Amino acid sequence: MHNHDHDHSSDHGHSHGHDHGGHHHHHTVTAADVANKAFIFGIILNGAYVVIQVIAGFITHSMALLSDAGHNLSDVASLALSLLAFRLAKAKPTGAYTYGYKKTTILAALTNAVVLLITIGMLGYESVNRLLHPQPVEGGTVAIVAGIGIAINLASAFLFFRNKDHDLNTRGAYLHLLTDAMVSLGVVVSGLIIRFTNWFWLDGAVSIIVLIVILIGTWSLLRQSLRLSMDAVPEGVNVETIEKVIITIDGVDDLHHTHIWAMSTTENALTTHLVLNEQLSFDEKLKLVHKIKHELFHNNIHHSTIELESAAMPCKDETC
After folding, report:
1. CB count, 10 Å around CB of 107?
2. Which are the contacts of 126, defined by CB distance < 8 A and separation ≥ 6?
3. Residues 118-177: tens digit of each pLDDT
4. Cα(274)–Cα(251) distance, integer angstroms
């Protein structure tokens, strides 16, 4: 028993900041602020580059540049959507939206994936066309423009590096910009080859490869954001592991009806029913619940709702 007590007092010191409603966003806010700056800067940088690429794409007749521009434009769109979602996620809950607008972060990721798929379809059609009917392409200029792209994408990716393990949208942005740099590299190489060999069909071919790369990336974004929209357990969280964390805490006899879902791309929620040791007084049970919530917080569950039951009166409710 002594052990339990000591544990609690050490807990109490810092669990304070965690659990009290308004307070516990503390560490996500600073992360979001860093992300915010990165997103704004990324939007400006990539937005300007898209304009350059589109103009250059038309001047040089390069489909590869236009595909890359389509890719970069989708980046700008996703950065803008994510930024908007971050802003909305900070909005205060209202009577109608008791969770605030956190879920918009998930919808942003989903929208982004769908828009990307449409872009791929349109560019793919034109690229196949170009592959079958090659047109002269100014390879040298293509290589230079795409070269600028490598620099811009790497610089932008670096902005998100610090925060990438924190949230689906930031991670999406980071991976996106990184594949972008690789894609631009491919366009540079094809531009140089065309410059010296006049293999104009290569432009269409590279364009198609670029689109396949985007497709693979988009697919996982689509899958994950659909998962989260369906209130599935977020990747990186495992129900059994979480249940084990709770059940091994001293005083917990049983638990069931555990639900875990994502409230936003950064925050997860849980509900569960617990049977606590009957010997515990009411106050001890409350302390124990507090301790459990604290443990959950360290396992990436930011909001937990715990219902208590006694072994004598098990839950009869079918739906729960």
Report:
1. 16
2. 63, 66
3. 888 988 998 999 899 998 999 999 999 999 999 998 988 888 887 777 777 777 778 778
4. 10
